[in-house]
Amino acid sequence: MNPTIDWQALKTLTEYCREDIKGFCEDEGFSVYPGRLHPFQALFLRNLLLCNWSVREGYFAYYWQAQQAFESTG
Q1: What pLDDT score does 70 carry?
Q2: DSSP codes, 12-70
Q3: Rounded Cα gap, residues 35 and 38, in angstroms
Q4: Which stretch of DSSP H or E encloses residue 72?
Q5: In the chain, is it the N or the C terminus that has fewer CB atoms within a 10 Å radius of its CB?
Q6: 58 close to 30: Cβ distance less than 8 angstroms
Q7: What is the Cα–Cα distance from 16 to 47, expressed in whole angstroms?
Q8: Residue 31: left (phi > 0), alpha (psi -120 to 50), or beta?
Q9: What is the pLDDT of residue 1?
Q10: Could you tell me if 25 and 46 are in contact, meaning their C-beta atoms sit under 8 angstroms apart?
């Protein structure tokens, strides 16, 4: 299964810019080009961005809470 991730929509939702996303990629040791990620890396990165965004926006107090909620819906 190769998921299709709409990186532009994700950038619009989270308000992370290209440089922010490249920083997340570098921190995780991934390619800095999201289109070149393996499928499991792309999903991990998408989840990481969404969890960080949801904590930043106040939906959750801690990252682990967002991650747990996200995993329980998936």
Answers
A1: 82
A2: HHH---HHHHHHHHHHHT--SSGGGS-HHHHHHHHHHHHHHHHHHTTS-SSHHHHHHHH
A3: 9
A4: helix 63-73
A5: N
A6: no
A7: 14
A8: beta
A9: 59
A10: no
In the prediction, which pLDDT does 5 show?
A: 86
CA distances to 11, 32, 34, 59 from 72, rounded to whole Å, are 23, 29, 25, 16
Beta carbons of 24 and 18 less than 8 angstroms apart: no
Amino acid sitting at position 73: T
pLDDT means per 10 residues in the chain (74 residues)? 82 93 92 83 92 96 92 70
Q: Return the residue matching tokens 């393996």.
A: 38
